[in-house]
Amino acid sequence: MKVRDILRVKGNALYTITPEDTLLDAARLMSDNDIGSLVVMAHGRVVGILTFREVIEAVVKNGGSMQGLSVYRSMDPGPLICTLETDLDEVRRMMLGRHARYLPVIDHMQLMGVISFYDVAKTVVDSQGLENQLLKAYIRDWPEDDAATARPGHDS
User: Fold this and answer.
1) 27: which of 51, 52, 97, 150 lies 20 to 30 Å off by Cα?
2) pLDDT category, 140, cuts 50, 70, 90?
């Protein structure tokens, strides 16, 4: 499975902010939209990511206040990114290796979306659920002649 498949199911809502915006504006945007990250864009390019983790760290370092804090001073300027063609297993390795909860998805230098650890976990669980359903349907449709010979302890 590829990142393209995750975005197809998830949808392509994008929330971005600029480095010049205030941290308060960013926190408000995240709160209003119930999201955990914002992609930081400048001149049409991804220049960073701001997650609730960076917001909390910045506020704590600033004595509990957002006063005077900009997105630029608080963001992660080197976020992990992936493409539409990145394999789901590679995404999992990347996220686990860097403790990243969000990955911007870039295609031909254009932001296509963001996938979260939740999106990846949901995709894995949904995929396993489908596999289980298919296996159960296959077992239910098992031919009677083969069923007796396939089970140990049954004489033919």
Assistant:
1) 97
2) confident
